[in-house]
Amino acid sequence: IRYQGGNNAGHTVELPGKQYKLHLIPSGILYPEKPCIIGNGVVVDVASLLSEMHSLEQQGFSMKNLFLSDRAHVVMPYHKLLDTLSEKTSAIGTTGRGIGPCYVDKMNRTGIRICDLLDKEAFPHILRRVLEQKNTLIQAVYGEKPLSYDKMLQEYRGYAEMIRPLTRDTSLMINELYDKGCNLLFEGAQGTMLDVDHGTYPYVTSSSPISGGACIGAGVGPRMINNVMGVAKAYTTRVGNGPMVTELLDETGNTLREKGREYGTTTGRPRRCGWFDVVVVKYAVRISGMTALAISRMDTLGGFAKVRICTGYELNGRLIENFPPEISVLQRCKPVYEEMDGWDSDIAHVREFKKLPDAAQNYLKRIEKLCNASVAMVGVGARREECVTIMDLFG
User: Fold this and answer.
1) Which residues contact 130 (CB under 8 A, 6 or more apart)?
2) pLDDT of residue 393
3) Are the beta carbons of 236 and 280 closer than 8 angstroms?
4) Rounded to an integer, what distance in angstroms lies between the CA atom of residue 299 and that of residue 354?
5) What pLDDT is stored for residue 395 in this prediction?
6) In this predicted structure, what is the pLDDT of residue 32?
7) Considering Cα of 96, then 97, then 98, then 100, what sign does the dihedral take?
8) Of the candidates 42, 51, 378, 35, which has an alpha carbon nearest to the alpha carbon of residue 177?
């Protein structure tokens, strides 16, 4: 169940001999027997969704178990145009996919939902009203040409018929599955530091990727969630603008980027790389109530004689251990490092924690202690099976 974000997300999934890049469709689509749900909290570029479905179908995957919330909002062409135009004057580092402007309309009560798109009588009137407002903005503020109502209406009428078979009251569907005793896996689209409330504002996304966002974005009660898995790399990365205290602007940072193939799945932009930031991860553990951590890319961090963990920030001689809200403060913070022995990078064959190099075990144990969360899974290679499972949270 995807519960927020849009096709600004890029989730790379490995199966034996094949790599898949997903943007809107939940990662579980690769399991043909599993229902996959795009929840009401997701903003949906319908053309992108249909293209992604077609690509997966050509590769042999069925879409019969894919369902789309009738309450999800639609990313329209004017959202993408306004996103690009806005980025020129106020660089946040967005993907330009129209996600932010779509969420703005949602909160401003001027959005178009999937159920509106499917309403043959109401949709033309809704679109005309909204597009008149958007064209005024596009022309008067940005000096661009207005978008065509007739062209957009015809295009989206066609999309409506293509997605009609997928559309459901997914909140009802999810709750019925839960009542039957099914296990449910909620999938966010971005990281904690991009959360609109708790992230590095304003360099954030426009929704809540934290665990609390799952309830709102899927239409479920909080009692339904009993495990929260936090995913973090063995080092820290960020794509786009915004403060990153542990960023390495040197050969070490470049090595991490190239070894880890740290380029955005959606945009191809190079990610900024740095040492593991305990201040960030400890903060994420707290606000999402994480029950465990999955640490990926241990093989990427391997091969260094020494590795570092940022245990706190230093500002004007003062130690900061809890993540501050002010961008101006973060930009002046310096990382406080703890240095540990490194390990060999050839660990992809390891499947048991006790068979990892001692230095790697010590590194993970130190992360557990500093972040106040148990490590349940460790990624030791790029392939799906290259993983050490310490605790099974999905049984």
Assistant:
1) 76, 105, 110, 112
2) 77
3) yes
4) 16
5) 63
6) 86
7) negative
8) 35
Q: Tell me the C-alpha to C-alpha distance, in Å, between residue 346 and each of 215, 340, 379.
A: 40, 18, 12
**∠ CA(54), CA(60), CA(66), 5° rounding?**
60
For 367-386, the DSSP string reads: HHHHHT--EEEEE-SSSTT-
The structure tokens 């992360």 sit at 367
Return all residues near 21 (Cβ < 8 A) that are at least 6 apart: 10, 11, 12, 13, 265
pLDDT per 10-residue tile (average), the chain, 395 residues: 91 81 92 94 97 94 96 97 83 77 96 98 98 96 95 98 97 97 94 94 93 97 94 92 92 91 80 96 96 95 95 96 95 97 90 96 98 96 90 77
Phi, psi of 14 (to 5 degrees): -105, 130
CB 189 within 8 A of CB 4: yes
Task: Give pLDDT, residue 93.
Answer: 60
User: DSSP label at 297?
Assistant: -
- Rounded to whole angstroms, the Cα distance separating 316 from 242 reads 21
Written as six digits, the tokens of 233 are 């790399």
Burial 33-70 (b: 16+ CB within 10 A, else e): eebbbbbbbbbbbbbbbbebbeebeeeebebeebbbbb
- Give burial (CB, 10 Å; 0-12/13-18/19+) of 151: exposed
Cβ atoms of 38 and 187 within 8 Å: the answer is no
Report which of 330, 332, 336, 326 is spatially closest to residue 278, judged by C-alpha positions.
336
Sequence-distant (≥ 6) Cβ neighbours of residue 47 within 8 angstroms: 159
Angle at 61 between CA 74 and CA 179, to 5 degrees: 70
Q: Distances from the Cα of 10 to the Cαs of 168, 279, 341, in angstroms?
A: 24, 25, 33
d(CA 337, CA 262): 23
Give the pLDDT confidence score for residue 266 in this predicted structure.
67
